[in-house]
Amino acid sequence: MTDVQTTRYDDQKPGTSGLRKTVSVFKQPHYLENFVQAIFDCVPELKGGLLILGGDGRYHNDVAIQTILRIAAANGVAKVMVGKDGILSTPAVSNMIRQYGANGGFVLSASHNPGGPDGDFGIKYNVSNGGPAATSLTDAVFERTKVMEHYQIADGHVDLSTLGHSNLGAMAVSVFDPVTDYADLMETLFDFETIRRFLTSDLSLIFDAMHAVTGPYAQEIFVRRLGVNSDALMNATPLPDFGGGHPDPNPVYAKALFDRMFGDDAPDFGAASDGDGDRNIVLGRGVYVSPSDSLAVITANAHLAPAYRDGIKGVARSMPTSRASDVVAAAMGIESFETPTGWKYFGNLLDAGRITVCGEESAGTSSDHVREKDGLWAILMWLNILAVRRLSVQDILTDHWATYGRHYYSRHDYESVAADKAEDVMARLQGQLTTLPGTTLRKETISAADSFTYHDPIDGSVTENQGLRVMFESGSRFVMRLSGTGTAGATLRLYLEAYEPKDGDHHADLSKRLEPIAAIAEDLTNLRQTVGRDGPSVVS
Ligand code: VG1
Ligand code: CO
């Protein structure tokens, strides 16, 4: 074991989901080591404990895993369980931590950000409930990274290509199959027999793994266990650079899938997940399910899947997610919660048993089976619902809107804009918040406007400045916030929402329906001119 003098960095503050930087930043001397040692310093129970380790297979995963193993050994970790070839999806890590009673786990991923030598890398630390570290811990880690002087590292190397047990110094290392436990968990939650019959006789499916981590999981679950033909899987081999793609399942980056689903001879059901397997999108033939609607549909129908047969306790959504799930919760007489963006805010509610399902507009949905969002879980939930109800995706949505009303919804991302300009846009809107209520613009009267603050009902913690909200008397809303996952400049997100009650028109053109709210947002912020763009980089 060697005690090495570290290089301190002042930029190791984790964002919405872990520490995410370009590969070139992570390759700086002692950069990863400094961050990882800070975690060991802040989580003393890792000494003598069990750690789960894996990532989404992106470039630099292999190097980082060996470094973490050596630091873990030097810091007295008793045992590390690492996925074969360093592969583990984010939900699989969460499951492994819970199933094996681990003290924590690392996920090496920058999720939906592109990979490769010129792409991004990231590291997330999850705690013993299987969920992302709370802000109190990530803040402590950040403070530590700025003042620590040394890190400890052992010598050695672990062969990750073969299943089995070995040692690194005194630390036991187990290289395990990353897929089996996760696939087994899914079989306990859903009715695989009914889904298999449906998939092999009635419903055609395609799944796009985007050359990211879910390829092997999809092989095992869809092909081996559910009998789907392997040519239904697109891009199912994980590649270090995701084949040059951007593993974010939205209409821009998953264009090939969208083209198939909106083209002639589209299959009945299409789905995709992101770099680390925690996001999902669901499409029907010629229809895209807005993730906010997906959460609402799952809330209303989860009881059709075996594990949720007795009903769900409550539902939570991140603040920018549309209020569609609130309406379902109210009708069902269950609690609903509004949390800041990022999965870490759901953990307390899940641990306390206040909610069973939760989700985000950014294509994340999950339940209390793990403490992360879970892409394949959501896709299997949809398949289970479809197999029981025997309706098309479009029919499920049409029926849902007729029951609860429709929340037309769209997110406009302005990616990699100048950080100071993005700040200007936010400041401009922030400055008007107090005077906006009561104002009528383009025939829409503003009922409330604020900067979102979250009061955690379980531990009482308060999280401020989580995005600016402008609400209208019509039930429409827009939200604006800065992304916490980007690595270049700033990304501004504008979330647009318009409500149409259950007896209204649910089949209007989405962008036309949202146009007045988009125009008001532009009037109030001067967004496009300020950041120098004609329009958003991505609309999802
Ligand atoms: C984005 C999404 C957010 C999600 C986060 C991590 O964050 O908007 O909903 O939880 O990514 O997802 P931001 O701060 O860029 O808006 V993932 O799939 O990177 O783990
Ligand atoms: Co992700």
UniProtKB/TrEMBL annotation:
UniProt keyword Translocase present: no
TM annotation in the entry: none
Cofactor (UniProt): Mg(2+)
PANTHER family tied to this protein: PHOSPHOGLUCOMUTASE, PHOSPHOHEXOMUTASE FAMILY MEMBER
Record-annotated Alpha-D-phosphohexomutase alpha/beta/alpha domain positions: 12-146, 181-283, 292-404
Record's catalysed reaction(s): alpha-D-glucose 1-phosphate = alpha-D-glucose 6-phosphate
Family the entry assigns: Belongs to the phosphohexose mutase family.
GO biological process, one term: carbohydrate metabolic process
GO molecular function, one term: phosphoglucomutase activity
Domain of life: Bacteria
Protein name: phosphoglucomutase (alpha-D-glucose-1,6-bisphosphate-dependent)
Pfam families noted in UniProt: PGM1_C_vert_fung, PGM_PMM_I, PGM_PMM_II, PGM_PMM_III
One CC-aspect GO term: cytosol
Keywords from the named record: Isomerase, Magnesium, Metal-binding, Phosphoprotein
Documented EC number(s): 5.4.2.2
